Amino acid sequence: MSQTKAELRTSYLAKRKALPADELNRRNALLRTHFIDFVQQQTQIRPLRLVHTFLPIRRQNEVDTWPLIHWLWQHGTGTAISVTNTETNQLVHYPLTVDTVLAENKWGIPEPTTRTQSTIEPIAIDMVLVPLLAFDRQGHRVGYGKGYYDRFLASCRPNCLTVGLSLFEPVERIIDIAETDVPLSHVLTP
Q: Most exposed among 41, 46, 90, 158, judged by the fewest C-beta atoms under 10 Å?
């Protein structure tokens, strides 16, 4: 069944928020397992020195990326996160380390509180973990509708892995794809 982004945004946000805590934890644990398998397969093909990730908005029941981040750190892979610049409608990228102090912005997204370290250019990133509400079989995604990640992904290297993390399986087709929408190279689900 084909649906619009607005329809999917409304229905999948409600579905995700309705997940009981034990089911959310179960799906996150399965995603962690699939993520580790995926990364191990990819590192046999190419090195993954720097992985950009999103940090979960807890009140939205987003995928919990913290276990993935800790696993990457344990295996010597650097991580980066973004700060949302609402004046330029761009994401600015910073290193994420065990020492990074975070605070939630107005949307509930954890961001670094001090930004004295150098920013990271998108071309330095080997893999981007992309948040989403829903996705289709062609790799198109529905986010919160501001286009931040599409602008970011368009500035990454062509061989950068763009990996969506979803708690749900794909829909058949999103019918209102825009020319500026950047499809994902991979999506991991429970």
A: 158
